[in-house]
Design a protein that fits this description.
Chain C: This is Chemotaxis protein CheA. The complex is a heterotrimer of chains A (95), B (188) and C (724). With 95 residues, chain A is α/β, with parallel strands linked by helices. Chain A has 4 helices and 3 strands; from the N terminus they run E-H-E-H-E-H-H. Chain A has one domain: Transcription Regulator spoIIAA (2-Layer Sandwich). Chain A has a 3-stranded parallel beta sheet, with helices on one face. In chain A, helix 1 packs parallel to helix 2. The termini of chain A are far apart. Chain B contains 4 helices and 11 strands. In chain B, strands 8-1-2-11-10-9 form a 6-stranded mixed beta sheet. A 5-stranded mixed beta sheet of chain B has the order 3-6-7-5-4. Chain B has one domain: OB fold (Dihydrolipoamide Acetyltransferase, E2P). Chain C is of the alpha+beta class and 724 residues long. Chain C folds into 5 domains: 139 residues, HPT domain (Four Helix Bundle (Hemerythrin (Met), subunit A)); 173 residues, no CATH class; 55 residues; 181 residues, Histidine kinase-like ATPase, C-terminal domain (Heat Shock Protein 90), CATH 3.30.565.10; 139 residues, CheA-289, Domain 4 (OB fold (Dihydrolipoamide Acetyltransferase, E2P), Beta Barrel). Chain C has 24 helices and 21 strands. Chain C has a 5-stranded mixed beta sheet with strand order 6-8-9-11-10. In chain C, strand 17 and strand 18 form a beta hairpin. Chain C is elongated. The chains are: A alpha/beta (95), B alpha+beta (188), C alpha+beta (724). Chains in contact: A-C, B-C. The interface between B and C is large, with 33 and 38 residues.
Chain lengths: 95, 188, 724
């Protein structure tokens, strides 16, 4: 199963690069997994990318899961009340 | 007339006649006598006429007239003095007098008095005024403030507040009313 | 006018208005317990107290301010729902009203500069009030909680819902400008608690065209916060540019804001200001709305309310509430403008002069009739019509509804009921029936007596009522209606009715009627109005005031009215007073006797007929089978001259009995101004005043009931003497 680990922060500063990176990853297969463990920082731009990639995957009929959410990601998802919407299993990591 | 006697007794003693009586007076004749009213209490003189009789009133209340929209009682002084009623003649007039009630809080009422003829307005000095005699004039002494000598004739200075005391006249009317309620007193 | 005079006038107005407000307050309090939706009423009571306090402050009447302040505080607590309506509360507030009336009366009596020491009574009232101000422990907790919760608690709604509803669509460039929308949301969360949040991403285009550096997200947030709208709005100050930020009161809070708008003072009549003041919009939103309105071309035609709703800064119901409030304020303003307080004396003077105008107009008309100038006649009759219109208009000015007089009895019934230990309710109908002010002023005392009497003697004790199968709560009714040019006022009770036999026995005992007299029920009931008659077998506290029904009757007849009683055994009785609508004008029927003219009040006249010749010396005639006794005015008034060959009879009614008045001539109907006859004629019984005819002559007005009863007494007196 193709998996992508985002190594960098997901912020406005990396958003443009991350967008192409993520969209590229969508073509890697039908059952995809993105590891968020190393996302130490995320802002609205990052959140938008997560939403975008989820939407695109659904649009293309592919399965895409976020795994290993970092604390920063969890906080933002909580705040935006999207944890349930994304429907991914959330495991609290000791980060 | 026992009622009248009672009322007379209740009246206060005639006031001091030494008070300043000097001043301007309106003189008029009535039943051959010459009378005078203080000019300040005399408001106007009108011709006699258009009088409406009010039933069940003593004879000295001749009735009421319309004085420019106000209903004013007219008193026959001669009858008030007990000398019969005044016959109406060509020169008969009505002097409108302002009286103040003694018991009410200073409320004033206009009354008309019937006179045979109005004579003139005269100045009467203190030296011309004598205290009223206690009898002989044929009028209750408390009705008279004094007697003034003028052109060889006596002028009777009337005490308006006594002669035209609305309270006393109303009381007398009431007496008459009550008597009226009894038989055979209709023309008393 | 000097400053002192102005102050005196202003103070007079203060006294009058305060007394009126206190009357309103008392009326409000009396109905408070029964009111299912008392908030309106409580507001009105509060406003009355508030206004009095404010005005008293203007005059430096500190003792009134101090006392009223405590009353106001209690009312405020009541208004906030922290205190509920209870009989105890009403029982303390009513005497407070009384006390305030006393304080204000004292001011009216000239005690402006003296600061009366606090009386024991006042101390007691204040203590009583303060006990309502000390909240119970449970209430204290409620009070300490946030306003949001208070509202829920009183509304009984869901506890965990916020009070603001936010819709935020951040500007597309805000990320690029270095602002992170999520951080604003985090900051918002510090103002209160975010109860719910939904993120919307539908503004985000497809992957191709999505610019990762643009902001696309929108949020819908329910926030529970004590902060006002402006404070919440300020959170978004830095991102406002290009963003859509709408902060609305939560839907279920709309009633709260509607109420808030309704309770606003009346000095801000602009829609925007109302919304702003109630906190549902902010200054900025208002300004934007106004700008949008101004920006419309060719000219502003959309209403501000619509714009604000369009811009989603406020919901429609709130705009509606504000618009309603605005209308209400306008109406109040309009009413203020339409009402002018007029010195009663000036009004009387005007009516006097108009009365004279009528008389002199009639004089002109009479002269005109003597000429045969048809143009002149036409002009004078037109003038007379106008003059009469002016007079009717002037008399209308004096007309007031009797309701205010009636509602004063709410208090009387309450207090007297307590005193008597009877549970009695007062039902008022026909309160909007209008009658001349002078009549209203004079009817209070007779009504008071009738009401007390009905409560004391009419309505039975609860036990007796229960035994008779009636509701234990007695009912007293005050009713008024217009009836052929007069006002009828009824005092009814659902008590035991009049005791026919006891009245008769008493009347015989007192020598009012012969033991063998044959009397109808109606005649027996009417005996209670005879002087010296008292029906109570035991004199109670209330009836021991030395006023009898005879005094009531005399008061009523003094007002040219009459009084009658109806009674149904076991079901109650009704006392009906009929009074003329005005005391200044009378519809009269002019008759002539000898040279004099007399006016008979038209409402007393039943019919007129010719006196048939063969009466000899009888003083009664046959009126279609009825015996009609008559009074010859010529004899009664001792008028000289001969009776004409064919005299006329005017059939009049008084106290339900018909009597004929024999007169020489019938002249006709006319409406006339009553001139009092004055003190000199005060003792003349049977004359109700005088009037001036068109000819300038004075005509006397007959007081029919007194005339008839005086005549009867006189006859009886004669008979007694004849027997003696």
């Amino acid at each position: 199963m193709p998996s992508l680990t985002i190594k960098d922060e997901l912020t406005i500063y990396t958003a443009a690069d991350q967008k192409s990176n993520l969209l590229m990853f969508l073509t890697a297969g039908d059952d995809l997994e993105i590891n968020l463990a190393n996302v130490t920082e995320i802002d609205t731009a990052g959140l938008q990318l997560l939403i975008l990639i989820k939407r695109e995957a659904a649009h293309l009929g592919k399965s895409l899961r976020f795994v290993m959410h970092s604390k920063a990601v969890l906080d933002v998802l909580e705040l935006a009340n999207l944890t349930g919407t994304f429907g991914d299993q959330v495991v609290l990591t000791q980060n | 007339m026992t009622e009248l006697a009672t009322i007379e007794e209740k009246l206060p003693a005639a006031q001091s006649k030494q008070t300043a009586l000097a001043g301007q007076y309106l003189t008029f004749t009535l039943g051959g006598e010459l009378y005078a009213l203080g000019i300040l209490s005399s408001k106007e003189i009108i011709d006699y006429g258009n009088l409406t009789e009010v039933p069940m009133m003593p004879v000295f209340v001749r009735g009421v007239i319309n004085l420019r929209g106000s209903v004013v009682p007219v008193v026959d002084l001669l009858a008030r003095f007990g000398k019969g009623s005044t016959p109406i003649a060509k020169r008969t007039g009505i002097v409108i007098v302002e009286t103040t009630s003694e018991t009410d809080d200073g409320g004033s009422q206009d009354l008309g008095i019937i006179v045979d003829a109005v004579n003139e307005v005269v100045e009467i000095g203190q030296q011309d005024i004598e205290p009223p005699p206690s009898f002989g004039v044929g009028i209750r002494p408390d009705f008279i403030n004094g007697m003034a000598k003028r052109n060889g004739r006596f002028v009777i200075l009337l005490n308006v507040s006594k002669v035209l005391s609305v309270d006393e006249m109303a009381a007398l009317s009431k007496v008459r009313q009550d008597r009226h309620a009894l038989p055979d007193t209709n023309n008393a | 006018m000097s400053f002192d005079d102005q102050m005196r006038d202003a103070l007079k107005t203060f006294v009058i208005e305060s007394l009126e407000l206190l009357q309103d307050m008392e009326d409000g309090l009396l109905g408070l317990e029964e009111d299912q939706e008392p908030s309106e009423r409580i507001n009105a009571i509060f406003r009355a107290a508030h206004t009095i306090k404010g005005s008293a402050g203007l005059f430096g009447l500190d003792h009134i301010v101090a006392f009223t302040h405590v009353v106001e505080s209690v009312l405020d607590t009541l208004r906030d729902g922290k205190l509920s309506v209870s009989p105890e509360l009403v029982a303390i507030l009513l005497p407070c009203c009384d006390h305030m009336i006393e304080l204000i009366q004292a001011v009216a009596d000239g005690e402006v500069n003296t600061k009366p020491a606090m009386t024991t009574a006042e101390r007691q009232l204040l203590d009583g009030l303060e006990s309502f101000l000390k909240p119970e422990p449970k209430q204290a907790m409620t009070a300490a909680q946030t306003t949001g919760e208070q509202f829920e608690a009183s509304g009984g709604g869901v506890i965990d819902s916020g009070n603001w509803h936010l819709f935020i669509q951040f500007g597309e460039n805000c990320l690029r400008d270095g602002m992170d929308p999520l951080s604003f949301i985090r900051y918002l969360a510090t103002l209160g608690e975010i109860m719910s949040l939904t993120t919307f991403s539908h503004a985000m285009p497809d992957a191709e065209s999505m610019d990762p550096e643009s902001s696309y997200l929108g949020f819908e947030i329910v926030l529970k916060s004590d902060a006002d709208k402006a404070a919440i709005e300020s959170v978004f100050d830095f991102v406002r540019e290009g963003s859509y930020i709408h902060i609305l009161p939560l839907e279920d809070k709309i009633p709260y804001y509607v109420e808030l708008i309704n309770s606003l003072g009346e000095d801000n009549a602009q829609l925007g200001e109302l919304l702003l003041k109630s906190g549902v919009i902010t200054q900025r939103e208002l300004q934007e709305g106004l700008n949008a309105q101004q920006a419309q071309v060719p000219q502003p035609n959309t209403r501000l309310g619509e714009i604000l709703v369009d811009q989603q800064v406020v919901q429609q119901p709130l705009v509606n509430a504000a618009l309603e409030k605005q209308q209400q304020i306008k109406d109040n303003k309009a009413r203020e403008n339409q009402t002018i307080r007029v010195d009663a004396e000036r009004l009387d003077k005007l009516i006097d002069v108009i009365g004279e105008l009528v008389i002199s107009g009639a004089g002109v008309n009479l002269r005109a009739l003597q000429t045969s100038d048809s143009a002149l006649l036409e002009a004078t009759s037109e003038m007379m019509r106008l003059v009469e219109e002016v007079r009717d208009g002037a008399l209308q000015l004096r007309m007031v509804a009797i309701g205010a007089t009636f509602s004063r009895f709410q208090r009387v019934v309450r207090d007297v009921g307590k005193e008597l230990g009877k549970d009695i309710s007062l039902v008022i109908t026909g309160g909007d029936t209008e009658v001349d002010k002078s009549v209203v002023e004079k009817i209070g005392d007779p009504l008071m007596h009738l009401v007390r009497n009905a409560m004391d003697h009419g309505i039975e004790s609860a036990e007796v009522r229960a035994a008779r199968g009636k509701s234990s709560r007695g009912e007293l009714r005050l009713n008024a209606y217009h009836e052929s040019g007069s006002i009828a006022i009824e005092v009814s009770d659902d008590g035991g009715g009049l005791d026919r036999d006891r009245i008769l026995a008493k009347a015989i005992e007192k020598g009012l009627v012969q033991p063998d007299a044959k009397l109808s029920d109606q005649e027996i009931y009417s005996l209670i109005f005879e002087p010296g008659f008292s029906t109570a077998s035991q004199i109670s506290n209330l009836s021991g005031r030395g006023v009898g029904m005879d005094v009531v009757k005399r008061n009523v007849t003094d007002l040219r009215g009459d009084i009658e009683v109806e009674s149904r055994p076991g079901q109650g009785s009704t006392i009906r007073i009929r009074l003329p609508l005005t005391l200044a004008i009378i519809d009269g029927f002019l008759v002539g006797v000898g040279k004099s003219s007399y006016v008979i009040p038209l409402d007393r006249v039943v019919e007129c007929l010719e006196l048939s010749g063969d009466l000899n010396d009888r003083d009664y005639m046959d009126l279609r089978g009825e015996v009609l006794p008559f009074i010859r005015l010529r004899d009664l008034f001792n008028i000289s001259g001969d009776q004409p060959r064919r005299p006329n009879v005017v059939v009049v009614h008084a106290a339900g009995v018909k009597t004929g008045l024999v007169v020489d001539r019938l002249i006709g109907e006319f409406q006339t101004v009553i001139k009092p006859l004055g003190k000199l004629f005060g003792h003349v019984e049977g004359l109700g005043g005088s009037t001036i005819l068109g000819s300038g002559e004075v005509a006397l007005i007959l007081d029919v009931p007194v005339l008839v009863s005086t005549f009867e007494h006189k006859l009886q007196g004669n008979m007694h003497l004849a027997q003696a």
